[in-house]
Task: inverse folding
């Protein structure tokens, strides 16, 4: 019996939103399989370039949290990066793995040896390029993964009209 006591109510509003995908672009449409900017375009974003020069663990940690889709935090990955840097100087081994992950996520050709070499000899430029790539693809990197998901959910949340139940019935 439609509308009777046993009828299911329509959804009351938007359901929980899962962490699936995120916007692919922010004004610029990157080509699949390619970097949006060059390796040596560090000065396109002066503040990130300076931050990376003086404190690469912050740049790395912020990017790593997004690349890991929130499964690691900026603080943990940044601290681990700093510890590896201070005690061994081999942070390039750790950070190049995130470059490889980023390339896989955006369909770029994998080249682990190239990623390792870039992080060994052009480390700051590689970190800046990864950070810029995330920005161009729609992330506000300092917000972290969960902050970006929340921002996106607010921007795309669809409000359903209120459910009107029948008045008094005889």
Result:
């Amino acid at each position: 019996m439609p509308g009777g006591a046993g009828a299911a109510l329509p959804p009351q509003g938007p359901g929980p939103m899962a962490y699936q995908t995120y916007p692919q672009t922010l004004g610029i449409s990157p080509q699949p399989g390619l970097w949006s900017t060059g390796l040596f375009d560090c000065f396109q974003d002066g503040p990130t370039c300076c931050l990376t020069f003086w404190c690469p663990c912050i740049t790395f940690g912020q990017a790593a949290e997004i690349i890991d889709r929130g499964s690691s935090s900026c603080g943990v990955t940044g601290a681990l990066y700093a510890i590896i840097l201070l005690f061994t100087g081999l942070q390039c081994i750790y950070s190049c793995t995130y470059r490889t992950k980023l390339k896989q996520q955006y369909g770029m050709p994998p080249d682990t040896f190239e990623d390792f070499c870039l992080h060994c000899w052009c480390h700051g430029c590689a970190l800046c390029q990864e950070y810029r790539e995330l920005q161009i693809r729609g992330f506000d990197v300092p917000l972290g993964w969960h902050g970006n998901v929340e921002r996106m959910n607010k921007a795309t949340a669809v409000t359903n009209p209120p459910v009107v139940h029948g008045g008094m019935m005889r």
Summary: Helices lie at 46-54, 56-67, 74-87, 91-105, 112-121, 123-136, 144-156.
